[in-house]
Amino acid sequence: ERETRLKFICDCTAGVMSSTGRSAFFSRTHVNYEIKGDVAVIRMNDPSVNTLSVQMQREMTEVMDEVWGNSAVQSVVLISSKPGSFIAGADLNMIQACTTAEEVTLLSQEGQKMFEKIEKSPKPIVAAINGSCLGGGFEFAIACQYRIATKSKKTVLGCPEVMLGLLPGAGGTQRLPKMLGLPSAFDVVLTGRSIRPDKAKKMGLVHQLVDTLGPGLKSPEERTIEYLEEVAVEAARGLAKKQIPLTKEKGLMQKIQDYVMSYPFVRQQIYNTVQKKVMKQTKGLYPAPLKIIECVKAGLEQGPTAGYLAESQNFGKLAMTPESKALIGLYHGQVTCKKNRFGTPEKEVKALAVLGAGLMGAGIAQVSVDKGIHTILKDTTLEGLSRGEQQVYKGLNDKTKKKSITTFERDSFLSNLTGQLDYNGFNKADMVIEAVFEDLSIKHKVLKEVEAVIPPHCIFATNTSALPIKDIAAVSKRPEKVIGMHYFSPVDKMQLLEIITTDKTSKDTTASAVAVGLKQGKVIIVVGDGPGFYTTRCLAPMLAEAVRVLQEGVDPKKLDSLTTGFGFPVGAATLADEVGIDVAAHVAEDLGKAFGSRFGGGNIEFLKSMVDKGFKGRKSGKGCYIYQPGLKRRDVNTEALEILESYKLTPNAAISSDSDIQYRLVSRFVNEAVLCLQEGILANPVEGDIGAVFGLGFPPCLGGPFRFVDSFGADKLVEKMRKFEEVFGNQFTPCQLLLDHAKDPSKKFHK
Amino acid sequence: MSLSLIRTVLLTAFSFCSAARSLSTSVHLQAQGNVSGVMLTCEKWKMPIPFSQYNSKSKKTLAKPGVKNIVLVDGVRTPFLQSGTTYADLMPHDLARAALQGLLNRTGLPKDAVDYIVYGTVIQEVKTSNVAREAALGAGFSDKTPAHTVTMACISSNQAMTTAVGLIAAGQCDAVVAGGVEFMSDVPIRHSRKMRKTMLSLNKAKTLGARLSLLGSIRLAHLSPELPAVAEFSTAETMGHSADRLAAAFGVSRLEQDEFALRSHTLAKKAQDGGMLSDVISFKVPGRDIVSKDNGIRPATMEQLAKLKPAFIKPHGTVTAANSSFLTDGASAVLIMSEEKALAMGYKPKAYLRDFVYVSQDPKDQLLLGPTYATPKVLEKSGLTLNDIDVFEFHEAFAGQIMANLKAMESDWFAQTYMGRKTKVGAPPMEKFNTWGGSLSLGHPFAATGCRLVTTVAHRLQKEGGQYGLVAACAAGGQGHAMVIEAYPQ
Fold this sequence. Notes:
heterodimer, A: alpha/beta, 8-stranded mixed β-sheet, 6-stranded mixed β-sheet, 32 helices, 21 strands, globular, B: alpha+beta, Peroxisomal Thiolase, Chain A, domain 1, 10-stranded mixed β-sheet, two-stranded antiparallel ribbon, 17 helices, 12 strands, 38% helix, 15% strand, endoplasmic reticulum (chain B), transferase (chain B), Thiolase_CS (chain B), transit peptide (chain B), signal (chain B)
């Protein structure tokens, strides 16, 4: 009876009863609690998103103290009132507001202290997790004695700090190795990957799983949280009464692993292996993973005091690194580029038609059908269509193998796809995306054919990497409905979509294209029209320079290691093979015509000779490298080297050191990017950075060309360029905007 | 806590006021320690309450001018036995034969008077894929009577009956036998796909070498068999798991489920002892004794029920073996005729089969909500209200499923949000609901249950003097069915 009464009283928040909790209850905005019999249910409800902000931490500390001090409470449930998130992580603004490493270290230490108290709580605490439980939120959860998670698709656990150039700074590097064992802990902390509930249960991160509920007497989301709370309260009682054991009986494998790990020699081997792997993957350009290893090692080898100290100090240091700032900048940029700054389109695109079932067309179809967009995939030949449909099927089927979708979901997604050879049904299309061969006359032919069959409201989007949209739109009867949508291959993996508008493209057309792209899960930049738009225009000079470097006798492997050594995920030679030597030649020629000698450098004839020999890159099996199916190892294509012989240039020793070559490649890229901003092709530096990193693999640790200029210094970059300019001429002439920034160091692209 | 409080709380729960939602776990826990109180309230449900008068009905009859009256002449079923018991060595068509022969015996129907036979089954015995035909031949029906098999999960024999109604209404037939059989004692277990593929290739292999190389390709893993599961193909979720989630979605407590299960068993026992289950025929099982009673009825105590661990969602689920229907062997059959034909042959029909509907919804989160969707639809179709119905027979797949449906039917919010209705239809009053037990206690041979429900409604109407009865059932695939039955004037 007492329980029912208490619940009743707590439900009536108007509160007639004078309880000690009452006044505090009203003043708190982020955390509140209710006592259900002998269990305190603490609910987190930040007015915006649940993060471990200063306010949240302060209120949580207050509430915990009250709960600990209340002798009626035997156990605690910690839950979020937000449907989509438990705690999304630490408050990034809080970290960014700090100006010194010491300040950040202090933040970390406060977090450590709070979670230490949670860990040592005399009353068992159950973390009831629904939605994202990441970063600091994850560290909070693993400090609790017991974890229950919903099986919701939104529920993910993990510590993504490493992806922001940070480390889990509130005990994560110390608790995880103890919970999971060294190898799994390293895997979780170093990759920063999101762990789904079923996997978390298997790993032992979560003790119990709760199903999501469907329609009932309340909305499914609301009732699922309620149900989670009910189950958690029962578990909390069981824990307090010691009916549920806190430590799980270890399995045989676990015991063996623990035994092996008890030898310092074995642990040392693991540190070394992990360190080597990290160095191989990051080329030492990312300090965070190395610091994480250091912290884990300190905790295990020198004890918790040293471990926690190392964690907080390294956290502080990392927060001040340019790498972390760059990565956080990218994170914010990505969030920005996931919004539609053109507003809601008048008509939602529900029926899409894609022309051309090649790699691109099929890829676009794949990322559309699984978002519920009815998609026609049209090709001109049965063979082409069959290949394209198989690509879509395989893309979705691979997801069933990874268990990210079920076979039933695959089937129902595929039911959104119609493969055909004619224009049947185009009269009902809301948008047509053409992905036919990059040839202006073919594009014109297709546009005219399509405009004859589509309804007036239908948008015509063209997927091209270099042809100016206004040239394609020249034959259109309705140029306001024509827009460029430049996808990156492979479409289902590459996050970027570059949307290109002409002077005539209407705002609603743009809004609609962005809406479709966002639905397809893309990060979007919207740029102005012109040869190569933004991304291709930046890439072309860099590839031209790469060709020159090859002509100067640098081995493709060496070229690759120089570029990856600078932070590009894919080396320049490999990138050329991936893009396609023929495409590169085509683009180089087109842009060369448009921009003149500034786009010179390497000899286009070399590329053409390669194409003549059939060395078109990965797709033809040979390019700079030889590709053999099933074989990971790639050998340099010696025949390509023979061709290079006839285009050989003599390197100028003054500008041919490894570092010079790197800056020759990068400065041309960066200068072109800045010029795009200067010319208004780019709307802002944020989109420039996002486009370069997500579309072209510009080193993420540098945060994109604009952030690179900010951190490296425009003056230093100009100085380097001037040196190259002396030898190569206008290809290295810094643009005006870059010069402005060089002259005035207070000018920054990012505030 | 006082005994009266428990009683109040429980009664409130079962009258499905909105307060039922507040029947929180705390009450559940406190009530567990006080089983005697619970038993007392259970006693109350055993009392059927006299029915309302005919003249208060929305409609005097559901007969429509120009539409044939279709009648249920009679219905029978074999005893429903837990699978693996006395029927264990039979085949499905043996059970079906027993039901069909029982129907002939009961009605004295000349075999050649039957125009058509429709029979339901869910788990198919591959040797008798058209089990209707095999059973009809074996039961001595004329080989000139065509027979086909239908399947629609737990509403397969409902589909058989409505198919019969359709054939008669369309003027194609005058007398149709419908029924259903389920045999869970033996289910088809297959070789793995890889093994099947190898075996099929083996048939085609011409040379000894080719055969040997195929045999050599067999790996240990190929030998693991494929078992049929009571799981949705589309979601891969077992039905019990879905029922547990459904119960949780509607806040149905373990206590409510156990109490409903106990009610079902208690009422079934009473009906069995009181000779109400007259549709059951005796069956001499070859090599075994004569079976004449259902063997799954086991009224336990609340204490015993409370001891069981959850069967599907562990450790916090609420659906247990005792509050779920069990795997059952059994068959049923009914004789459906046009009224003229029945009267011409000198029969006194038991009931009119009137309007019926089929519904379907999301197979994941609303798998078992068929009755909630079907009931208002069939009532509207026939122009009746819930108050007009004197007898309710709902298929009890799980106690939690029944309770969830009752709560859904009692919820305006659910009706508005998910059914596109302005108001709730209301939940059937418990004193009219499954008063002779249900699938939880009598058993649930998937494809045989539908005929049992319809026959039971007819018998209850006769016994209790009501006019209208309503059958409703859920089925795998997120489907559902409801039918209105009108008593034949006595």
